[in-house]
Amino acid sequence: MSQRNLVLASSSPYRRAILDTLNLTYSVCKPDIDETQLAQEKATELVMRLAEEKAKAVAKRESSYQTALIIGSDQVAVCEEQILGKPHTQENAVSQLQQFVGKTVTFYTGLALYDAEEESVDTVCVPFYVTFRDDLTRAELERYVELEQPLDCAGSFKSEGLGISLFKSLQGDDPNTLIGLPSIELLKMLRKHGINPLASDI
To answer: Per the UniProt record, which residue ranges are transmembrane (predicted)?
Structure first.
């Protein structure tokens, strides 16, 4: 397997947890960029742009990263054409979840793999669809937010935890997309660079 340094441009513990399951050796660096949406920018364009910007920002952080492969990722939720990010407060989280009751919410996750040595990048946007229960009460939503504190999660829930109790159905190609890192697409990108966690010479 390739010995290229692999860097995750994120401080998200959820994305780290996904990478930890993939038998990959990597380091972590917080990208620290402006994530403001541009005028007239669509959700798909936003997440792909931010994923790429995060990866490129990290490439400039340390000299050791200038030959690395850097993973960037960004996610938003879209409900009735409104883009929703992280709630940051319990009140906002409950409010977001109330908007979702009985509706299908699309989660768009942008993924970028930046080859800092070649200054080339692969980007993709992966959708995932979540239909929320139509019988959810405000008391249930408040209790959920109190228990799991999903304040740093786009859409105000953690699908890998108690958030599953909010759903009627899920639809998508890769469940890790909903957590914020589309593993199938990432592994496809990494194989192009000679990184394969199933290779016999790991």
So the answer is: none
**Can you tell me the distance from the alpha carbon of 164 to that of 95, in angstroms, rounded to the nearest whole number?**
18
Range of the domain at 89: 6-192
- The catalytic residue among 34, 74, 122, 173 is 74
- Does 173 participate in catalysis according to the annotation? no
Angstrom distances, CA of residue 90 to CA of 86, 102, 157: 11, 21, 11
Number of CB atoms found within 10 A of residue 20's CB: 10
Q: Domain with 11 in it: what CATH number?
A: 3.90.950.10
Q: pLDDT-derived band of residue 11, with 50, 70 and 90 as boundaries?
A: confident
**Using one digit for the tens of pLDDT, what is the confidence trace for 46-85?**
999 999 999 999 999 888 898 999 999 999 999 998 998 7
Query: Which of 88, 116, 107, 99 has the alpha carbon at shortest distance from 44?
Result: 107
Q: CB of 61 within 8 A of CB of 70?
A: no
Tally the domains of the chain.
Answer: 1
Q: Is residue 43 a part of any domain in this protein?
A: yes
